[in-house]
Specification:
alpha/beta, 2,3-Dihydroxybiphenyl 1,2-Dioxygenase, domain 1, 2 helices
Length: about 130
């Protein structure tokens, strides 16, 4: 693997933030979807829940209470890579995700767009 540019220094992707109206429902979904553990940090109030990859490979996921979830597509979303796309789509839908049926997919695509129970879009992408 190559080295990162010196100008980047120690800057790294550490946390993905997911907005939620129902903190408990979103936490349960993403914990089951990713197999993540509750973080060690204790958050004051009822505003955040932090989830961590128990294997230490992926970034943390921070579930953040929001006043609303915009109905239009978000400018940033999560991509999940897998060699078993269809199996994971079925599993994620059984956990409460919904397929975005009206997505304008290109003719040949390797991804499927879903929404978590809070309405946040994410993609499940087939990789070899």
């Amino acid at each position: 693997m190559g080295e990162r540019p010196e100008a980047v220094g120690d800057l790294r992707l550490a946390t993905i933030v997911v907005n939620a109206l129902d903190l408990e429902r979103a936490t349960a979904f993403w914990r089951q979807a990713l197999g993540y553990d509750l973080g060690d940090e204790i958050w004051t109030g009822d505003q955040y829940v932090k989830l961590n990859d128990p294997a230490g490979r992926g970034p943390s996921v921070l579930i953040q209470r929001a006043a609303e979830i915009p109905p239009e597509a978000a400018p940033v979303h999560i991509d999940l890579y897998t060699t078993e796309r269809d199996r994971h789509i079925e599993r994620l839908v059984s956990l409460g995700a919904t397929r975005v049926e009206d997505w304008d997919y290109p003719e040949h695509h390797d991804f499927i767009v879903l929404r978590d129970p809070e309405g946040n879009e994410f993609c499940v992408i087939h990789v070899d």
